Amino acid sequence: MEVQMKAVVQCGGRGTRLRPHTSILPKPLMPIGARPVLELVLKWLRRNGIGEVFVTTGYLGHLIRSVCGDGSQWNMQITYTQELEPLGTIGPLSLLREQLNEPFLVLNGDVLTDLNLNQLIHNHRKSDANITIGTSVRSTKMDFGVIDEIDGRVTGFREKPELTNLVSMGIYCMNPVVLERIPSGVPFGFDDLMFQMLEEEARVNVFKHTGLWLDIGRVEDFLKAQDIAWDEQSTAFATAAA
């Protein structure tokens, strides 16, 4: 099923959490099995009906262009942008103002998921939100004993508790009006955009995903991804049904 939506794949980060490996390769080219994670992401987009992709590059961007080319090997069209200076997580969209003239997808180039793109896009289009954030539930185990206190007196103690939160997957649907909020030529993060929209009480929605989601920038997720067969037949990474 063709989704008919452009996608921006963010590949400009330095991948500091995966050093020293990312001193040689940009994070989206880190291998999952025998293939770079970005190839898996692009193939997943194509199987979900996305044919036109913009890849934002910065650090070691020439390597990404060498590996992916114009996208014809996956029957898709890839256009690249190059950051001269780091522009943050959302700032690179300022380089694509003219091309993104209708609702579009934005995703990090190191995310592996079985998120249903058709459902995400459908939910966004029927809502009055300017941004819909793909979200997942993540638990984080604290390395410390947590103390509750009132006026210096201990009222509670939890030994290395596990905290559960709804977190951004690094996948978004956005309307072109969002681009008006992004300055040109300076670093601008998704956090900056969110704080701005919340302050103005602009509508932002979430799409809750309960399936697979791996952030390859995290060492734990990178290692976990090696144990999954990321091929076209894999049920974990197949085309999501509408």
Description:
By secondary structure, the protein is α/β, with parallel strands linked by helices. About 20% of the residues lie in helices and about 30% in strands. A seven-stranded mixed beta sheet has the order 5-4-1-6-11-8-12. Strand 9 (about 145-150) and strand 10 form a beta hairpin. It starts with 5 loop residues before the first strand and ends in a 17-residue tail after the last helix. Residues about 240 have low confidence and may be disordered. InterPro entries: Mannose-1P_guanyltransferase, NTP_transferase_dom, Nucleotide-diphossugar_trans. GO terms for molecular function: transferase activity. Keywords: Transferase.
List the helices and strands in order: EEEHEHEEEHEEEEHEEH
What value does the Rg take, in angstroms?
19 Å
User: What is the overall silhouette?
Assistant: globular
Give me the count of strands.
13
Strand content: 25-35%
Q: What oligomeric state is this? A: single chain
Q: Assign the structural class, choosing from mainly alpha, mainly beta, alpha/beta, alpha+beta, or little secondary structure.
A: alpha/beta
- Rounded mean pLDDT is 87
Main sheet: which strands, in order across? 5-4-1-6-11-8-12
As residue ranges, the low-confidence spans are: 238-242
DSSP helix count?
5
What is the CA–CA distance across the termini?
8 Å
Query: Residue share in helices?
Result: 10-25%
Instruction: Summarize the main sheet.
Output: 7 strands, mixed
Q: Which features does this protein show?
A:
242 residues, alpha/beta, two-stranded antiparallel ribbon, 13 strands, globular, disordered C terminus, Mannose-1P_guanyltransferase, Nucleotide-diphossugar_trans, NTP transferase domain-containing protein, transferase, transferase activity
